[in-house]
């Protein structure tokens, strides 16, 4: 695996915890240079220090994915520090579960801003680089909620993840053959995603489900590494990964 991951420069959003953090550590252990973006720079600094102590190569930058300029700056950091960008993992996400009848419009807006627009900003930041070098890999983290609508409670969240699937598949069709795209659709995986609900009843349900069923974040990290390490002419278009006990 390390032969095809080593020397790659990988940009990861939502990298201060959960799937993003685990993916950063895993890829760095195989010799990738990881460029980590998140809002919580204190956590990024801790992760980066530990990656460096283990011999890895890492750069970090405060990044709010709802700001397109932040994504451009993160990609520019990768170029400045490591000379190029090979992969982006659009991982940042929000899961605010609540029945539609609660009309939590602000949370709907926030999920759209992070899960859809934030992902698009990441795509926009790397596409010119990928087209110029005629290579690259866009990995978008969706959800099993983008395959089947999780309702009641997850209707808007699911709609954002259906959008992620549509965007990624559209990119696969539109882009040059040398630019790969991958959809990663996790089920209940250990991360802070489960804490995004302000609706008390929904939050209790989600946290109980995760507590009893979740699998480790490195399960997804290994899946992402699998997609990256394939030969350049092999595109792992989609991976669905969930606990064996999860029905949906």
Tell me the layout of helices and strands:
Elements: H1 2-5, E1 9-13, H2 18-29, E2 33-38, H3 41-53, E3 57-62, H4 68-82, E4 87-90, H5 105-133, E5 136-141, H6 155-174, E6 179-186, H7 200-213, H8 218-228, E7 238-241
Key structural traits:
248 residues; seven-stranded parallel beta sheet; alpha/beta
Strand content: 15-25%
CATH class: Alpha Beta
Helical residues, percent? 40-55%
Compute the number of structural domains.
Answer: 1
DSSP summary: helix tally = 8
CATH topology: Rossmann fold
Instruction: Identify the strand order in the major beta sheet.
Output: 3-2-1-4-5-6-7
Question: What does it look like?
Answer:
The structure is a single chain. The chain is α/β, with parallel strands linked by helices and 248 residues long. It has a single domain, classed as Rossmann fold, CATH 3.40.50.720. The protein has eight helices and seven strands; from the N terminus they run H-E-H-E-H-E-H-E-H-E-H-E-H-H-E. A seven-stranded parallel sheet has the order 3-2-1-4-5-6-7, sandwiched between helices.
Short account of what is shown:
By secondary structure, the chain is α/β, with parallel strands linked by helices. The chain is built from 8 helices and 7 strands; from the N terminus they run αβαβαβαβαβαβααβ.
